[in-house]
Amino acid sequence: MSIDPATLRGTWSFPTTVWFGAGKISMLARACKTLEISRPLLVTDPALAALPMVTDAIAANEADGIATTLFSDIKPNPISANVRDGVAALKAAGCDGVIAFGGGSSLDAGKTIALMAAQDADGPDMWAMEEGRRDWQSANAPLPTVAIPTTAGTGSETGRSTVVLNEDTGRKVIVTHPGMMPGIVIADPELTVGLPPHITAATGMDALAHCLEAYCSPFHNPLCDGVALEGMRLIRNHLTDAVADGTDIAARSQMLAAAAMGSTAFQKGLGAIHAMSHPIGATYDSHHGLTNAVVMPYVLVRNRDAINDKLSRVSAYLGLPGAASDGFTAFLDWALELRGTFTMPHTISELGVEESAFDALSEAAAADPTALANPVALDVAGFRDLFEKAFRGDLD
After folding, report:
1. Residue 194: per-residue pLDDT
2. Domain 17-192 architecture
3. pTM
């Protein structure tokens, strides 16, 4: 196959220091000291805030001379008010860094709080640092951050961006700054053991969507391709085990790695799965990973001509049934099988999406920065067709 050398170009950056393994949460105080954080703001969600994993971590920090302030006013889909309140809490307590502790919402909120707390009064606001813009170049670097994921999905712990809902516009905004990458990640699978099966499944499908869209992105980054491919293999081999037995530390570990790999890979780009999921989540407050899982098959079918060869390679690497004869169909069947195994919806109508919202959702999806990396260019009409098919359950 002939390849135009002009397309073989890119800017490549890979993630940060990761302390990975069961029991690594015991190293939190060391992580803070390594990053020269003496008074961190620990950002988490209300449900986690009262659990031993958080209270014990704070107590251990305090015992090691790290005065830690708790902030937990975070919504499942974080909004800008959460960030503003977090910045106020950080400054009131005189904090000099952030511990982002929890699922994607807590990690995104914590990283964004660290970014905005470092800005001068006349500096750029949050929305000026939306992905695709260069306003972040005039921004101060964020405060140092330790990230501690408790779900295996978003991979925000190894990402340079966050997603925050702008209440004024009703739009989810991807906030980006190269300094938002946490200085140290503590990836301890024991912290994910209490995750309910349906959340384990939904976050796992989110990790799959990240790896899948990154691999299918038309941009050139072979490093990300390799990471995405291996991430999908880990998900193929371990997600169902993690859902079936939440105490399976080996499966939990592999899924935690796969989630970080998905975020590492998607610096190459995402696509229409996320472009559709973002406005659905903003409008209906649906779980992001679950929404990705619902729309995934429809986007795959729409992109088939552009990704057929890639999914043939993926299916062969994963050892999917039927890969030798039709790799694309083998992958599609696997994605549908996973949704069925986890009793996930087949249509966006089951998420509460209404036909009357199609115009607004389509316009928002076409304007979402993730749409730029979709293998097939889609305008508003193209996204409307996708929303209609996902509403009817039409995979033809």
Report:
1. 84
2. 3-Layer(aba) Sandwich (3.40)
3. 0.90
